[in-house]
Each structure stands twice: as structure tokens, then as C-alpha cells.
Amino acid sequence: MKPWKQRLILWGMAVLLAVGWLWMPAGADSARAEEPYKVGAVFSVTGGASFLGEPEKKTAEMIVEEINKNGGVDGHPLELILYDDETEPSKANLHVKRLIKRDKVPVIIGPTTSGNSLAVVSIAEQSKVPLISCAASYKIVTPVEERHWVFKVAGSDSHVVGRLYEYMKAKGISKVGIMTSSTGFGASGREELQRLAPEYSMELVADETYGPKETDLTAQLTRIREAKPDAIVNWSVGPTQILAVKNWRDLGMGDIPLFQSHGFGSRKNLELAGEAAEGVMLALAKVNVGPLLADDDPQKKVIMEYTGAYEERYKEPISSFGGHAWDSLHLAVAALDAVGPDPAKIRDFLENTKGFVGQHGVFNFSAEDHNGLSKDDLAMVVVKDGDWALAE
Amino acid sequence: MNRSSIPDGEVLNSMEDSDPILTLEGVGMTFGGVTALRDVAHEVPAGIIQAVIGPNGAGKTTLFHCISGMLQPTSGRVLFQGRPITGLPPHRIACRGVSRTFQHVALFKAMTVLENVMVGRHPRSRSGFWAAGLRLPGMRREEKRIREKASEILDLVGLADAAPLAAGTLPLGKQKILEVARALATDPRLLLLDEPAGGLNMNETEELGELIRRICSDGTTVMLVEHDMNLVMEISHRVLVLHYGERLASGSPGEIKDHPDVVEAYLGGG
Amino acid sequence: MSPADRRLFFLAVLFLAVFPQAVSSFDAVSHYVDIMVFVGIYSLVTLGLCMLMGYAGQISLAQAAFFGVGAYSSGILTVHLGWNPWAAMVAGAVVAALLAWAVGIPALRLKGHYLAMATLGFGVIVHIVFKEEGEWTGGPSGLVGIPPLTAGGWELYREIHWYYLVWGTVLVALLFCFHVIRSRVGRALMAIHEEEKAAEAMGVPTARYKVQVFVLSGVFAAVAGSFYCHYVGFLDPNSFDLMWSIRFVLMVMVGGMQSLWGALLGTALLIFAGNEWLHVFAEYEILIYGAILLGVVLFLPSGLVSLFSTHRFSRKSPGRAREPAPEE
Amino acid sequence: MGARCRRDALPGLVPCAAARALGNVHGALPLGTSRASGVFTGVPPEEARRGGLKLEAAFLQYTFSGLTIGAIYALVALGYNIIYNVTEVINFAQGEFVMLGGLFAVFFAGSLGFPLWLGFPAAVAVVALVGLAMERFVLRNARNATVLSFIIITIAFSILLKGTAMFAWGKDPYTLPAFTSGKPFFVGGAAIQPQALWVLGIGGLVVAGLSLFFHRSMYGKAMLACADNPAAARMMGIPVKRMVLLSFVLSAAIGAVAGGVITPISLMEYDRGALLGLKGFGAAVLGGLGQFPGALVAGLFLGLTESFCAGYLSSGYKDAVALILLLMALFFKPEGLFGSREAASLKRF
Predict the structure, then answer these.
(1) Do A235 and A118 share a structural domain?
(2) Cα A107–A111–A117 angle (5° rounding)?
(3) Which of A181, A280, B122, C131 has its CA 20 to 30 A from that of B170?
(4) Distance (Å, rounded) from C-alpha C302 to C-alpha D149?
(5) Which of residues 115 through 154 in chain B touch C, CB cutoff 8 A?
(6) How many Å lie between the alpha carbon of D116 and the closest alpha carbon of chain A?
């Protein structure tokens, strides 16, 4: 390499580094006239769980804008410091530390996924900063003695499974074949499906797992058919949940009802699965089916408002995951409004919050329950004429 | 072809009483139907310079590969100092005391001249990963000895000045010499030189001839594949002629020069 | 270790020692210490890979698997069997060494593309095992409840402790590698890289050395994995997938695989880029990775270190990295 | 709504108890070994027959789905072989061609509304252009690159393709209508989708076309000559550069064909390429790298093995099976199950 070329590249890099340094957001020490209230957020905006993290980010940004337009929180502007963990635990770990150390936020919402949430709960505990996770795993808030500072707003898979089993039991179903993907989502569903089966006197006659990149599920479905179940439960996200529906239909198994996880609850999935999805059932958070709710439903109003604002602003249908961001951010804001930016007081406020009406249900937190939801916050939904319809 | 036209056994016995350092017993090599060597039998007495000549494609390099373990002969066996070495991997054969150079220079081009020769000391040293990584005292002493020995050899071949240069930057003639130096560093009992004079000018060839003589007089048996007939005739004690993979003749340079089969093979087979 | 490398080494020690103090006085970069812990952990992996790729000339697309073996060994032994974390770390290194040895013997007989595919396939298989053996590994949901590392009675919970522990280990490993390189073994490795046949003819047991350096890289990765396990406190199979193996190769190549300093530089650059600077690009990150990789291979095959004075950074005389020296 | 569910979606909630019991017997048995259910005493013969038929149906089902995906693996393997034969380079981006083929087919036939007979070839053509660009603008610039560099370059290119696809199409999966509509039909109790026949048919056509090309046409013969001895080929006046270019175009096109035909069955999204590529490589190695008939047989074999593994052993380890086969082949028989050791020893490994 010629010396002048070397020097050119070295200088170029030096300039880039300098620009990168200057670009960095100003530190926490920059004083302002109106001290803003900060909320930290870590969402998986990119990477494997971006389909969850992106609506969360959009929702959070929309809410912050709305609040600031209406005079902020208790007179203070609201500042959202949002980092993308790219669906990687190590990055979630780093970002939460950064939010606490550098940005000195009094409360954090997120991370998006169960894995990343579990990777950061210990930091929240040690740093004594409340964390409101948007992920589902019950492990995030159990055992509650070791999760003093951690809350979550996503319903547990046990709620969804409980709702499904309850419905099946009412329909006289007792033998169930389950198929789950080997992802965190699928594995957690499988665990709950197995754990709760005896409670609802369900017999699991088949238990299949498959990779998230599976291109064909006929083998798994054939095996399940061999076991002669009364119903099938598929628990996955991404293309495999479409494949499950298509292959179920292609194999002529329409006489064995297919239940999907709540992961199926997006309109995109309905389009992809097309006619094959007719009759598929699932338990969904009410935020997904706002227009179908009875007018006296306590959640109807907040859901319709959120749905309207989001769809107008982003020109795309809402997803239930954005609802988690709505719930967590509004909880954080409620706390800030009530007690100010003091981590310990925010934590106490959250733990004592009752009857908070959110997108995913009516939250009733307590010292024993840092989730605050139950299976009754879910609605049983069936696919009818290419759209959702309430079952019963 | 009549392969016993020269009764070399007698000649050998009259010349050398010692056991042969290398014995080839019916060595044959085929590559997917093509025969490169057929039933070659030969003995190399210790302490001599043995040339192997023959037209292109006669199987000379293949023979070297078979001796040094780069190729496994498809039939027959090779004995070194009376013990079979067929089937041993090349590095084990090198440890036994057979070293070689390559027809197409195969130096470690990015390493320095000195380092190249130091690699050659590998079979005569022992410290492994742990000793090296932890810099144990034994390893440091050994490292010093390796360096000294390598410098000594570079002195011997006249490359001492080039020691810190990258091997790939040397002119071809020096690279050829460096290959010999690297091979010498293994303390070989038998040194196989594959066309060492290829690409060298007259002066360099002469120096090389001197070097080979010196190596031989220091007690190392040298086997040499070479096209430069002047060099071969000048320095070698015995000559083996291969033709289409078969042993055509063997004898002293004088005998070979006048041998009718050899003359015919060279003129006819070119 | 050459005098230049020794000077650099002392500079590096000095820099690393004052780095935490230096950044902690600025709020805007105070979290750089946390990032540096990750840089240190991944540097252990890339140092091993650099020995394997840059010096012995053998590619491996399975380093994330060894990293994962170390991490999961630590995780499983401490969570399920209640082992002492340090004992688990040693066990993880032993398991990785055995695995590298068992896979290395047949795999390293292969060359080039075949070796790449074989290691890639092995890495993917290990990843599948992490996902499927849920009873032990926690499966795709991940392994939780990993205890923190304790040293002499007190817990390692502050970043600064981790920083010194990890970087201390990296420096020891770096020293070890430098010593190996400047020895009989190192010369043999480089000889294998350059002319395997000739090395073999000079008495170098090439197969054994290749397996040994593969084992070395596996052990380094496993120790790094153990650190990762206790530092993050949570294991997710996706932290050990193919993309990470490719990233490790990328780190080594960007820095310059012919130099151990290059491995450190590449690791630091890519980790900082991924966590700090590339955020601007968010979704574009994958494209940028591909472009960097392509650009480096096409235009800067000896990596960033080749931009600096060649005498100081690159190994004694790295073929393509250096202009031919004038003949005597 | 509830009424609808009860009537349509949940019929047969009270099947005959005996059948259920039988179902459980079979559920608990290792399915692959108990075709003859009659051996169990106390099982009524009629039920036994039904059970036996079921097992047969399952076996057939696994066979069909195995053959379908196997055909795709075989096509991917052919792609590897073509490039390898001419350049001795393994193209790690081969799987991405499949992904691109599928997504471009969706783009042309779905988004632009082309008729399928036009959209599908258009997709193949575009991907072939991508292959051309890869060779012409990237690989050709790396003239003195080492094997290692080639590996990294093709990996880097695959990352770029994947990233670009993520931008163009996002992360959602896409589907394509089947080439011919129609309900699946049943053979021996196993369901066959019409699209599976298209996969096998088009796969067969590609193989036949390729063998004609390589053994009858001048171009094909010239390409094979380059593979045997590039120097000699150059001396004989064969434009080796153009042949290398052609090999990338051809191989990208074949990958695209595979992607286009499989998308109606398995959907397609941006990150599907790597695994398909890896398994296709497995088929190529099993069949003996560079061997066309070998790739075909090995691809189908791999598909069947996977399918049976998912059916009879463990669906979670299904992906691992193909890779273990690949490793076994690489470690113990690198010349492939159908290649000869001698031919392989002449190749540059």
C-alpha cells in the first residue's frame, strides 16, 4: 500500500470517529430550563423480534408526542430515551446499564422479548430502578421476592393457555395434540400447555416441535393425526404458523379444530393464510378486536382511541405488541405524574396500582403479582370470512 | 525393456562395503490407470551422491515423493537404514533423517530466511504449545540453540547476509540454496534434492555443486534428481536412470554415459 | 515477542489500566467500561481465531459454538448441579477442548471450502442442540438463574471488577499467543499456512498442530463463553448462532488476521460500532456488515493494521501485507 | 357464533371409544416398527386394518413431503455443482438465490400482477442477473484472492443479498398462489398438493435440460472442459472467463427456479436462504461435488431422511440430521456417496 493512501485512509477514519463522537446524544449533565421527566426504553426494533419491537417503538413515540402536546407530565416535558437491542441479550444488557448510568432514567420500559428481559432483570434489581417489561414469560416477575423492581405488562402464556383450555373444556374436548416451534415463544407455550393440562383435565396425546425455519409441517401434523386428538394447538410465530394452517387444511384435517397461539393475532397472518384459516381459533387480547367489543366493555374506549390514532398516524393496522408499549409507557407516566422522578417511589406506586385500564386488560398489581392481568382479560376469537369474530 | 543390463550389485559391493542407507524394493505407483513407477528396485549406499536421471515424465519426482512419504507407493516398499518407512507420514520420515527440497520452490515465502531454516530444526527440537506459551526455561534454551544452528547453516551455504529478509524476496538462485539449507537443518542422513540447479546460472550451478560435495563429505548421503548433465556427471558417484517409470540402468557416471540403452532413451525418447 | 510488540503491549496495559478512570469522569462515555467488558470477552474468542486463521491458515465458522459450549457448560453446571463457577469454567474449557479435538481430527484433514462448510455445519448442529436440550439448556427460552461470579468471598457485581478480570485474562492470553508465535510451534504453524507440503517434509506434524491450535481456539472461546455466561447472567441460544461465528471471522479480518493486535482492534471496532455508532443505521446494520466484509476482503486484505506502520503491527513479514523488500 | 363452532368446526367430538383406544395404542408405539397392528391380541381385525392403513398413509405422507423438499435440495445442489465444476469455488450465497427467486416471483406474479407464466421466468431472469453481477463485479475483482478470501467474499455477498431482500420485502413471509389451483388429492390416505407435482416436474425438467446442455451443446461441453483443465481450455480457444460468468448465471437461475416453485408450498422470507443453502450443499457433497446425477439422488435422499426423521424420530432434530449427514460425508467419504475417490483426489480440496 502506498504511504499516501495509508495516510488518507487513516485520516478518513479519524474524521469519521470524530464525527461519531460529536454525534453522540448530549449527556445527562446538559442542564435545561425545564427539567424533563425521562423514561428509558429498550425495544427490539431490529433483529429477530422486530415485528414486536417496531410497533412498540412507534406507539411509544406517538404517545410521547401526544403527551408533550398536551403540556407534558405534571408540567414537565416527557423525554423518551429509546435504544434498540437488536433482539440480542448482550445488547439489552448494555443498553439498560447505559440508561441507568449515563441517562440516569428513573424508570425503564421494555425489553421486548422474554429472553432480553430476563437478561436485564438482575441489573434493575441491583441498580434499584423499576423496569416494566413488555414480554410475556412469567419468569420475568417470579419469584416475586427476587423481582422487587421488575414488572411486566404482557399477559403470561399461562393466561392464554388457561383461556384456551377453559374454552375447550366447555366444548367437551379432552385430547389435545400440541405443536410448538423451537423458539423462546414456542418453548414457553409448550411449557404452559404441558403444565396446565392436568388442571383442566386435558390429555396431551401428541407433542411435536419444529424449527422456526421449517418449510413443511405435514410430517408433524401427520404424526398428530395418528394420535387422534380432539383438537390441535399450534404455538409459534412467523411463517410456521401460516404453514401449520395451510398444511392442516391440505391434509384434510379440518374436522380436528386448530387453535393457534395469540401470536397469530395479526391481520397479515389472516391474509397469508387465506381461506385455509377459516375456523381457526385463538385467545386474543382485546386490543386486537376493539370494534367487536361490547360498548360497555371498560377497555373499549382506550382501545378505540389508540387504534384510531395509531392507524391514522402510521397508515397501518395496530398490532397487539404496540399495546404493550402503550400499557408500560402510560403506567410509567402515571407514576411520574403522581410521585415524580424517584425510582423507589415509582416502584411503590406501580406495585399499588389497581384498576388501571390498558390495552391488554385491566391491571391490578400487588406485592404478590407484578403482572396484574388474568386470563379473563382475553377474548376467544375465531376466524370467520377472513376476519376475526368473537367465539360465543 | 531389459532392466538388468548393468550388474550394479557387483559394482556397489566393490565400492562400498557398508549397508545401503536406502533400499527400494519393487516400488510401483499408479495414478488411476497411469503407471508412474513400475517395480523399481535399487540400493543407495551410505555416504555417496546418487543421481537419478531420466527424460521428463520418467517418474523421478514421483520416486522422491514415494521415498519422502508424500505419496504412498501402490506396490513395493522403501527401506531406510534397513527399516521400512513405507506408510509413514512425511513428518515421521523426516524425523528418521530423510529430508528433501522441491522441484518448484516451496519456501515459506512470508517468513524470513532465518525462520525458514529454523523451521527445518523442527524434528530436532521438542518444546510444544505449553512450553512455548509459558516461555519455560527449557524452551528458551532450545530456542537459542535452534537459532544458533540455523545461523550456522546459513553461514555454511552463504546466505548469512540475507537472514532477516523475507524468503519470497530472494532471487530464484538464492531460494534454491535456501531450500537446501532448510533441508540441511533437519540433520538428514539422506538428502533428496529435486532439480536443485533448475533455473540457476552457470556460476550458481557451480557453487551448488560445491555445496553438494561438501554436504556429502560431511557424511550425508545425497540423492539428486537433475537435468543438468554436466553437474550430474561431475559430482555424482552413482547414477540411476529411469525411463517411463522403470529402472533403465544404474552405474557410475562413466558407465551411464556410454550405456547404449540410455543413449537411445535420451535420443529416441527425448 | 519482538521489541515493537513488547512496547505496544506495555502501552496497551497502560491504556487499559487508565481507561475506566478516564471515561468515568465523562457521563457521556461512562458506559464505555461496560462495552469494553464485552470487547474483552469477544477478544478472547478472536485471539484464538486469529491464531487459527491468521497463523495456521485454517478457517473456522464454528467459534460461536465453542463460545456457547463454554457458556452453557458454566450455566448448566452452576444452575442445575450447583457447581462452583470457577470449577464450571474449567469444566467448560475441558469440554470445549475435547469437542474441538474430536471434531478437529477429521475436520482439519479438509481444506478451504470443505473445512469452512464442515465447521459451519458443526456450528449449526451445536446451536440446534442448545435449542433442543431444553431440560438442561433452557431451550429457546433461555437459561436463567445463573449465579454471579465470586472471587475470594466477594461477588463480582461491579462493572469495574469485571473489566479488570476480563482484560487481565485477555492480556495473559495475548502474552501466551505472542510467545507461541515466536517459537518453534509458531513457526511450524506459519509454515503450515504457507506451504503445508514443505512443512510436512521438514518434519512438522501438520495434522497434530492444526488440531492443537483448533483446540486452543476452542478453549479460548469457551473461557470467553463462561465469562459471558456469568456477566450477562442469561443464556439464549441465539447468542451462539451462525451469524456470531461469521461476526468473529469478520472481526479478525477487519483488524487484520495476520496480527494479534489486528484481532483486538477489529473486535473493539466492531463491538463499539455495533453498540454505539451503527445505531444511526439501525436496520441497515446487516447491509453495512456485508459491505464492510466485502470491502475489507477486496481492498484491504490484510486488515486495518496494514494501514499502520508495517514494522510495528504486522507479524514479522506477512506476505501480501508488505511491499517486497529491496534485494540486498 | 358458538353454534357455528359447534356444528362446523367441532364435529366428531364423540368418536367411537374403541377407535380412540386403538389410537392410543398406536400413539404409544414406535410408529415405524408396527405396521402389522394385528399382532396385538384383543384388537378387532377391522380396527387393525384401519390402523395399518393409517400407518401406511403416514409413511406415504412422509415420502411425498420428503421428495418435494428433496427436489429443492437437489436443485440447490446442482447450483453448487455448476459453479464448482467450472471454478472450484463453493458459492456460499447459493441459498440466497433460492430466497430471491421466491421473493421475485412473489413480486412479479403477486405485486405487479403478471400472469404466472410470465412472472416466474421474469423472476428467474432477474436472479440470473444477480448471479451475473456477483461474478462480474465482485468475484472477478478478487483475482489473486486466496481460497479463504473467496469464502469470505461469497459469505459477504450472501449477507448483502439477505440485507437487501430485508429492505425490499421486509421481514414478513410471502406466499404465492399455487401454479394450478385445486384441492389436494389423496393417494393411499396421504394428501398430495398439486404444487408438489409442479416441484417434481420442474425439477425433472431442469435436470433433463442441464444434462442436454452439458452433453449436447457446444457451450456446455466447453464449460465442462474448463472444469477439467482451465489452462488447456484457454489454449484451445475457449473463453474461460465467459464460461465462469455463465456458470454463475446458470446456477443463480436454477436456484431461482427452486425458490419460485417452493414458495406456494412453504412461503418465503428474507432469511430462509442460509439453511436451504447449507442443506443443498449437504446434498452436493453427499452426491459427490461436481456430480450431477449424484446431486439429484442425494438431494432426494436428504429430503426423505429429514422427512422420516421428523415423522418417526424427532422433529426438533430434523435440521440436525441433514447436517450430521453432511459432516459424516465430509469426514469419511469426501468424494461423496456416488463419486469415486480417484476423481476426487484430483480436485483441489
Answers:
(1) no
(2) 100
(3) B122
(4) 11
(5) 115, 118-123, 125, 127-129, 131-135, 139, 142-143, 146
(6) 18
Q: Does one domain contain both A202 and A241?
A: yes
In Å, how far is D167's CA from the nearest CA of chain C? 8
Provide the 10 A C-beta neighbour count for residue B266.
Answer: 15
> CB-CB: which of C204, C207, C317 is closest to B112?
C317
Residues of C in contact with B169 (CB under 8 A): 324-325, 327
What are the C-alpha distances in Å from A85 to residues A43, A48, B203? 6, 11, 70
Q: How many CB pairs under 8 A join A and D?
A: 136
Q: How do beta strands A78-84 and A108-109 pair?
A: unpaired
Total number of domains in chain A: 2
Please give the CATH architecture assigned to the domain spanning C35-320: Orthogonal Bundle (1.10)
| Residue C132 distance to chain B (closest CA, Å) | 36
Chain A touched by D267 (CB under 8 Å): yes
A84–C282 C-beta distance less than 8 A: yes
* A384 in the same domain as A236: yes
Residues A283 and A164 in one domain: yes
Predicted confidence (pLDDT) per residue in A74-117, tens digit: 889 999 999 988 888 888 988 998 899 888 999 999 899 888 99
Geometric angle at alpha carbon C125, from A184 and A140, rounded to 5°:
20
The structural domains of chain D, with segments of one domain joined by +, span 65-179+192-271
List phi, psi (to 5°) of A319: -120, 155
Residue of C228, C238, C218 whose CA lies nearest to C119: C218
Minimum mean pLDDT range among B54-63, B70-79, B142-151, D327-336: D327-336
ipTM: 0.81
Same domain for A74 and A118, yes or no, is yes
Per-residue pLDDT of chain C (328 residues; tens, 9 = 90+): 788 888 999 999 999 999 988 888 777 777 888 899 999 999 999 999 999 999 999 999 999 999 999 999 999 999 999 999 999 999 999 999 999 999 999 999 988 888 998 999 999 999 999 988 888 988 888 888 888 888 776 766 677 888 999 999 999 999 999 999 999 999 999 999 999 999 999 999 999 999 999 999 999 999 999 999 999 888 989 889 888 998 899 899 989 888 999 999 999 998 888 777 766 566 677 788 788 888 888 888 888 888 875 543 344 433 333 333 333 2
Residue D27, pLDDT score: 33
- Is A143 in CB contact (< 8 Å) with chain C? no
Q: How far apart are CA D228 and CA D226, in angstroms?
A: 5
Domain with CATH 3.40.50.300 in chain B: 1-97+188-270
Q: Are residues A256 and A281 in the same domain?
A: yes
Residue among A182, A216, A382 minimizing CB distance to D5: A382
When comparing pLDDT for A354 and A215, which is higher?
A: A354
Domain at B1-97+188-270: CATH code = 3.40.50.300
pLDDT in tens, A273-322: 888 999 999 998 888 888 888 888 889 999 999 999 999 999 988 888 89
Cell numbers at residue D328, please?
A: 459424516
Shortest CB distance from D65 goes to which of A205, A211, A216? A216
Collect all residues of chain D within an 8 Å Cβ-Cβ radius of residue C131.
Answer: 316
- Same domain assignment for residues A279 and A312: no
Report the candidate in D248, D338, D331, D330 with the shortest Cα–Cα distance to residue D291: D338
Q: Give the chain B residue nearest C175 (alpha carbons).
A: B133
B79 CB-near residues (< 8 Å, 6+ apart) = B22, B23, B24, B25, B85
Say if residues D102 and D268 touch (Cβ distance below 8 Å).
yes
Domain that holds residue A77: 37-156+304-374
A284 in the same domain as A161: yes
CB B66 within 8 A of CB C169: no
Query: Which of chain C's residues have a Cβ under 8 Å away from the Cβ of D282?
Result: 121
CB contact under 8 A, D151 and C111: no
Which CATH number belongs to the domain containing residue A353 in this structure? 3.40.50.2300
Closest-CA residue of chain D to C252? D152
Distance of residue C184 Cα from the nearest chain B Cα, in angstroms: 7
Beta bridge partners, B83, equal: B80
